[in-house]
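Suppose a colleague, Dr. K., hands you the sequence of a protein chain of 204 amino acids and asks what its three-dimensional shape might be. Before reaching for any lab equipment, you can write down a predicted structure in token form. Begin with the sequence itself:
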Amino acid sequence: MLGLRHATDADHVVAVSAVASREKSAWGAVRIGAFWGLGHTLTILIAGGLVIVLGLMIPARVALGLEMGVAAMLIALGATNLRAAGHTHDAQSVPVRGRSPWRPFAVGVVHGLAGTAALTLLVLTTLRDRLMAMLYLGVFGLGTIVGMTLLSAALAWPVSMAARRAVSFERLLTRATGLVSVALGLFLVYRIGFVEGLLRSSAL
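The predicted structure, expressed as tokens, is then:
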């Protein structure tokens, strides 16, 4: 259940929406959600496993740096969508992206790295047994895959139907998701960099 809820975090939803908004088919958008969850889960298992099994610690500045990577990725995804939506007013020539599973997989990996520190800290304060802690991460990751796949499906089907009725809707959606992605990315840069202190030399 925590994995399902984790899939609905704002940065996750915005990132997947930015990638999926340019898919022509609902099935393609669902596949994006599944591969995002897979990348996220594998990263959590590998990085979290190293922390649990080897007893490694993730320094606060490194954890914030990984979160800043998510912010930068959101800005890049949004800028890409805005550039694509502005290239032409001809709906037929709006490019289709997201067909390769590696793009959403990579986005999931970035999110997984950013969330590893907080998740493993939660697990280690709850479970002392390493095997149970790894099982916890695996079940959490499975919930995230299912949650993101269901969320992508819920977003994809109505959007796909609307795009078939009005070809301009797809371009509008691409532009809207681009704006939201850039805005959230800039907000995270401010919060992580200045409020939490990553970009202030005296902090941490």
